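User: Quick sanity check before I run a bigger batch. Here is a single chain. Can you write out its predicted 3D structure?
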Amino acid sequence: MALDIEDVRLLRNPRFRRLLEARLAGQIAQNATLYTLLILVVQDTESSFQSTLLIISYTLPAMFLAIPAGALADALPKRLTLTTGLLLKTAVAGGLVLFSGDTLSIFLLAAALSAVSQLYSPAESATVTGIVRRDQLPAANALMVLTLVLGQILGIAAIAPLLLRTVGPSSVFLVATALFALASYIIGWMASDFSREEEAATRRAGFINAMQEGFRVLRQDRHAYLAIVYLTIGTMLLKVVVILLPQYTHDVLRISTRDTVFVAAPAAIGAGAGMLFAPLVIRRIGGWRVVAAGLVLLLLGMLGLGLVVYVRDFIESNINLGIGFVEREVGVSSVITVSMLLAIPLGFAYSLLSIGARVVMNERAAPETQGRLFAIQIALGDLLSLVPLLVVGALADVAGVRATLLAAAAAAVLAAAYLTFSRRLGPGQPLPRQALDTRPAG
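Assistant: Done. Predicted structure follows.
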């Protein structure tokens, strides 16, 4: 296992442990909520374009709020930012209990949940460097991603499907409301441990200077630039998969849209494996190289899903994985089995992407600038994905979901190649770490 005993000892740090506990509760609530909203919209409209509109309604607030919210997250006390954010999420989840039957209300409340996340998420990411040592950053970020993966497994693969089948969507939102409230209690307790000196350090820069600092890091350091570029492309591809997953489940796997868990659960398992593997690889080859490897693997996974029938035929002809036996004896289609197998590297790849990018941003920027750096990545990803996501939703309804996956992967390859090798964009050479990181080593 890549996480060693020294890494596990991070859990003895009470502030970091409480951060993980609050993050887990919040991630379970958020994943269960978004999964349920997506299923409701697809079932009501039977259109990938409508699911695209839901994702866009969740995306639009980030386009306008992410960068200023990131600067505010660095400027405001952590106690205020984190606790207030979770309390507002609690209110939104409570609103969904009352208005989950109306599609327009779903879109508006999804946008409200996203707006709150723009302030909360950068503050949560930037908090890590204030409560762990620099040499613990790879393991700390891996554990942060682990809570994300567990939140996906419990929210998407367990709580939401079970409650949707047995009780109904309102029960999912009631559970989410309770979990957000629990997270706000835990994070408030953790945040109260921050010293006045730690919170004062985040308020030294002015608002405009705070926003400019994040862009300065990207203009001057190639490693940070590449990490942001690859993570942004990877995040866009993940959104494409999320949008197309219900239709993929229905059209390709020939099962109910409620059974998207057949693909979502293996992806979450892969993400967990990536979390365990990433710290060791980051120590060996560096964070930004791990991000690049994660993007390549993610692209291969999407190509596999798009060509799933051909992949199935190749496996049955050349590799004895027992797929035919599963189909004959268990009754699970061979296409479903192969799709489940292909979903594992998708989750694994995104873990490498997200952990590697977090480590790069933690290492290349001073703590008081990291909230806005994470916010810039969120804003760029959401801004640049708006038009492609609209195209993806329309194309899937016309050309089919598998062709759309292939087209998205091909477009991502071209974009990554251009942004990597273009002389017009991005800095030339990476700066020495100490030129950007003013933190003490201890």
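Residues 191-207, 433-442 have pLDDT under 50 and may be disordered.

User: Great, the batch can go ahead then.
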